[in-house]
Request: fold
Amino acid sequence: MALTAGAAVVAGASAGPDNGDMSTVIPASKKPGAAPLSFEDKLDRLAQVAVHSGLGLASGQQLVMTATLEAAPLVRRITEHAYRAGATLVTTLLSDEEATLLRFRHGAEAGFDAAPGWLYDGMAAAYRGGAARLAIAGGNPALLSKEDPEKVSRANRATSTAYRPALELITKHAINWTIVACATPAWAKTVFPDLPEAEAVTRLWDAIFAASRVDRADPVAAWKEHDEKLHARAARLNAKRYAALHFRGPGTDLRVGLSDGHLWLGGGMNAANGRYCIPNMPTEEVFTTPHKNRVDGQVTSTKPLSYQGTMIEKIAVRFEGGQVVEAHAAQGEEVLQRMIDTDAGARRLGEVALVPHSSPIAASGLLFNSTLFDENAACHIALGQAYNSCLQGGDHATPAELAARGANESLIHVDWMIGSGRIDVDGITASGSAEPVMRQGEWA
Ligand code: ZN
Ligand code: ZN
Reply:
């Protein structure tokens, strides 16, 4: 699962509540068989599923939203749907990537350990007061790739530390939250480098609309059906009570022990505030918490990882006793090394997720350079923080209890892809026997 970003989205934010006084006209909803949906129709439907299927926004709830400047048209649509759903206040923090670059080019050396803690404390206060949280993803995945990796890493660490109290409320699902995507020129050019910018943006929007199911006759109903399928898959895996998963494929022979009392999740969930939300749109994964000390073997990434502005390609990592003891990458190795040096937990796994190779996002054949999409195209693992909700009774357990059951703790949570049409996955039972879970990337 992708988390609402503290770093990429809000760092360098030109923050301020959205005036929200621009009025837009909602197009009449189109019925099947009617004229094809216009771009404006689809954008509006995306906002609609974001508010209703993704966020599950309640009447009387406040909403805190983050986005980049380029996402303003989608921000306004979401704002309108939120108010129509009864939101009492929508507060949007818009960030500007150009301003972020100016910081790296001209900011004082001493400033790279700074983060707007006051802003994150305010976000945490909003969540504690019952606000919902929506993040719009779509920044330039390579924004910081040419900047000094040491400054990038210091800035990220400062942000992660300052954002932690707010992020904990997200990882514990204290509130309803979701992430949706918005095509931006810079992102689109990384997905379609050979196309002219306008065409690249159109193609990326089409892919986002398809993956977000807004091109279906009834998108809200389509999400409900998809959500039920993911729940059924998670229930089948929960019934198995596997002790470990064994991944085999080119460059990969990895045994991932699962935490004691692990829980497979997929699709939507009930937040502690009583709202039902689907935290990632799109989502195709079922996922759980590995045991932080029981991961062994070699694993190779099957897609590049966009990590806070840098592309890391062909990651090859060896685990021993749960810990990364060797890490290489064909590109971005320095950033990878700094990432796993963030803290003690950054070398251990906090998530393992299964996604069939036939997922619609994998079937698109696109590499999105965005975790929100690419993690839903392939089986993946995440270094760093575990989700308490992926342990039975985890949301009410103490940190010491969670750690004793194998849940990892870290400032980071970085998903990267290890699945493909050439990967086999076995479930290892408590008695040590192996059962096929996936063959050639598909459910067995
Ligand atoms: Zn995941
Ligand atoms: Zn994840």
Summary: Residues 1, 285, 287, 351, 353, 375, 380, 415 surround zinc ion (ligand 1) (CB under 6 Å). The mean pLDDT is 91.
